Amino acid sequence: MQISNYGSFPSVIPVIIEEEAFMYPFMITPIFVTDEANIKAANKALEQNDLVFVSCAKNSEEQKKSQNSFYDVGVIGSLMRKVALPDGRVKLLFQGIAKGKIISIQDENPLQALVDVIIYKDYDPEKINAIMAILREKVIALANISHFFPPDLLKAVDENDDPNRIVDLIASALRLKKDQSYKLFSSNDTEERLLLLIDFVIEETQTQKLQKEIKSKVHNKIEQINKEYFLKEQLKQIQKELGVDKQRDEEIDQYFKKLEKIKPFMEEDAYKEVKKQIDRLSRMHQDSADANIVQNYIEWVLEIPFGKIGKKKLSIKNVQKQLNLDHYSLNKPKERIVEYFAIRELLALRDKTNNKGKGTILCFYGPPGVGKTSLANSIAKAIKRPLVRIALGGLEDVNELRGHRRTYLGAMPGRIIQGLIEAKEMNPVMVLDEIDKVGRSMRGDPTSVLLEILDPEQNVAFRDYYTNFNIDLSQVIFIATANDIFNIPAPLRDRMEFISVSSYTPQEKEEITKKYLIPQELKKHALKSEEISFTQEAIKLIIEKYTREAGVRNLRRNIATIMRKCARKILESKDKIKKTIITPKNLPEYLDKIVFEIDSIDKENKVGIVNGLAWTSVGGDVLKLEAIKIKGKGTLTLTGSLGDVMKESARIAFSVIKVLIDSEIIKTPAIKPKKSKKTDEETQIYNLYDIHLHVPEGATPKDGPSAGIAMASVIASILCEKKTRSDVAMTGELTLTGNVLPIGGLKEKLIAAHKAGIKTALIPQKNYTRDLKDIPEEVKKEMKIIAVNKIEDVLREILV
């Protein structure tokens, strides 16, 4: 189709403004129009069966508002078809014929313009052919790295001889900007158009090469990672090319700043180790496995509070005040704690240069529930330092304390370093709970680490496996707690000073209940003192009949049980109930059953029953030793789940009583003479009877060096057929020569005797001289305590 078939030019024809891109001659293209002006121009052209001029808008938002809003060049063509679409748009099928240029606007409703055909200048065929060869070469190079040119287009470019037609074909395939397309449209110089297009092709080739290079950098990762990861990596590479990926560098800079801030408070080897790891991280790829491990290490280490020290001045007045506020009785432990901090306060006043207090490690030991851990809490509260509690019960893995080496998966610092991080200070109060229950296994012996932690000479340079440098723990106040110090290894015991926190007497428990437990539980259960109260007799009954302990833990639970039931009663009652008063009479309504801690003594004196005193890990206890004699040959039978030490004590006691009978120091019943060949020794009473000695509660293992005089007394009673005093209890070990040896746990034993209603206690002379000052005054006031040196002294008191 030729333009000459449509008459002469210039000619006035309707104008349609296309929004997206330039049209090219000899193309059949659909055009979608919604603008009223474009629709009117199309209708005008179709009515006259005439041509239409299609131009391109410079700015789609401003199109058709003025002559400057669209380009003055475009394509002259005919409209082959017009179809109205359901969404309100109109589809025009346009066929381009020739390029044209607007000379002037003739009408605006519809838009019509005087348009002339663009005629190209003559050119030198040889020169143009040379330029065409270069263009074809550049197009082929671009086609090899892009998808712009389909094979049919490349074939048309290769076979066509018209240079202007070739320029239009290539330009239509390239995604040129509007300004670039305008330059090609507006020029009628063939050589200029070819050279301009070559520049555009070269520019596009460079762009495609850069994109291909970026894609190749992430090609290896796309096989291992999903599509989302590939897109992220591609974005990272683009950002790297643009120089905007700075997040990782900022993190490294932050690490260096934190390190330099704490450098004055770190040892040289610690600073070098952390700096080395930060440098190593900066050289690593951020997605490598090692980078994650190193980054975790740096973040852990930089959390250690180097240089952060609690500045609160020590004051023994504050310590004493807080201890008295939180705890009743416990005079000796509180006195020793005040002395401990008195030394620290004096050092701080007189030795300003020495900030490292190499003090003693205190260890509170005693039965459960007597206030060992709460004493440590009060210390932390008094000196205004954070409290860190490390439970050691059942700990077997040495790495729990010393940290895991960084080569292991999931490695992290030990509990000591984590405690410092948690406290955010280098001098917290650190409580090592249940130090007597540390285990040993194939993973190491944690007590060996505790030796280093608790030794003031060694903990100035404690090395955690994870951090891999020394940390000063000398300013940490370590306080240990234990139930039984004999379960602690001897080298570890040597590092600590033990403070006994022993059993409470019934009177002390009454005061603790009134002053501490009831007010605290009222607050926990949202009750008021006007709603519930306890009588003195009810408190005494709960202590004596409903609890079985040395401390006050079960006592607190029983009080909490009563208050829960009271709270429920308040909520369920529709009417306002009166104040609930807990008395011995209504106590069974709130507590289930009575648990006797210690059996009360028998009121009647009996033969073959003696009260012995024992020490257990939960306090003292009264054990009734029983014996009977059976006709036999003088053997001794022992029952009651006794340990080796108590079995030996029984045999020694039997031998001692035999000696006393032989020497007639104690008298046995007269034996009727029988006609027999046996000698006088063979007719002694202990050879005519078998002795069976039993310690009740046979399911409970019992052992210890303190039952000798009680066993001797019960054997003497059964052989001499003399009754024993039921209100007397005793404790002490016995030698073969009849001497009474000292024992341990005297305070707990006498408190247990006091609770059982014992009126007289027999104890070794050395314990009487050494330990009597530690016995509570109410126990000494209500119980007669007699010192004994020999077994004869014991038998004189016990046998009736």
TrEMBL record:
It catalyses: Hydrolysis of proteins in presence of ATP. It is found in: Cytoplasm. GO terms for molecular function: ATP binding; ATP hydrolysis activity; ATP-dependent peptidase activity; sequence-specific DNA binding; serine-type endopeptidase activity. The keyword Nucleotide-binding applies. CDD domains: RecA-like_Lon. ATP-dependent serine protease that mediates the selective degradation of mutant and abnormal proteins as well as certain short-lived regulatory proteins. Required for cellular homeostasis and for survival from DNA damage and developmental changes induced by stress. Degrades polypeptides processively to yield small peptide fragments that are 5 to 10 amino acids long. Binds to DNA in a double-stranded, site-specific manner. This is Lon protease. It comes from Helicobacter cappadocius. The gene is lon.
